């Protein structure tokens, strides 16, 4: 099966592993990611203001590209996913807003939220199926205790994201189980790491991130997985002394498609 | 902008109806930036509703919201305070020369690991 893929700016730069292993794992599971042409940065964070039009156009263009190929649009990064999914939602549900956007892009075909947006985790759960993922695992992770870190962007606002129960999610825990590891449940897994505040108020991000690391470790975690480059940055920067790894990288290891690097 | 217009503008741009708020404080209790904010999410709601908007315009609290949407999901009345914080902040940074973050300043915040996502997000939140 072929799907449209929106990598986003960070996956082409600081988070190359997230991108590379997304391709490798999908291929092994029978899904081809087709990167949409000439995508532009989603802007990183969704503005909820009804009169913020221009900043949403790059997401609308990505959605239109997927629609024209009659494919679902797959994101990996939590940030891109949140922005694009929220944009799609307002294009579906806020007619006044959608009209303004379509007027802005008058030379193009109108768009009203027809494309479907899935995060890579949803692709694994709903399209491939975790049972199939489990069957494809060649290097089970030996019961390692792994904490899923959702952060905020994958789950909220729940009325839009609809990925999982926002207060007791299990999509990443189910993936962890499918890879042969043991999921660690901890209270802070869906609280914010501080996000972009790391740039101008690193102390604030440090407090948020420390809470998450401490909580995950107290519940026995030996590793944390995430889908978000900014979450990873904040956790690592603020003293995580257990590995913080992109979920696609770990999946690549379990699926036996991660080539062994020197010294590893 | 005169206060009445500013209030109308903020309400229109956010789509929030502050009258729905029952002042339970859940939004504030769940806000990860609680310690960094002088005005908390429930105060944004109350102060916009009562037209006491000036202090918010001057407040650092505008730049401490993380867009984590915890207050949006956990408000029992569907008020969505984060949308109000965003609209008040936009009413400030949309004015001339009011960008919080300037391109020249960014350099001093960077380290070699910082992801692009942090930089584009900060610009989206702090500048027009
Ligand atoms: S949680 Fe909702 S109802 Fe309660 S104080 Fe906050 S905005 Fe008002
Ligand atoms: S969205 Fe902003 S105001 Fe609301 S809980 Fe998160 S940081 Fe606080």
Q: Could you outline the blueprint of secondary structure elements for this entry?
A:
The complex is a heterodimer of chains A (264) and B (128).
Chain A: E1 2-6, H1 16-28, E2 32-35, H2 57-68, E3 73-75, H3 78-93, H4 95-104, E4 117-119, H5 120-128, H6 130-136, E5 145-148, H7 158-161, H8 171-178, E6 182-184, H9 202-218, E7 223-226, H10 229-237, E8 244-246, H11 247-254
Parallel strand pairs in A: 1-2, 1-3, 3-4, 5-6, 5-7, 7-8
Helix pairs in contact in A: 1-11, 2-3, 3-4, 5-6, 6-8, 9-10
Chain B: H1 3-14, H2 26-30, H3 41-49, H4 54-58, H5 70-74, H6 81-93, H7 103-106, H8 116-126
Helix pairs in contact in B: 1-6, 3-6
Bound molecules: iron/sulfur cluster (2 copies).
One iron/sulfur cluster is lined by residues 30-33, 41, 65-71, 81-82, 85 of chain B.
User: What is the overall shape of chain A?
Assistant: globular
Which runs of chain B of at least 5 residues are low in confidence (pLDDT < 50)? none
The largest β sheet of chain A comes out as: 4 strands, parallel
Overall geometry of chain B comes to globular
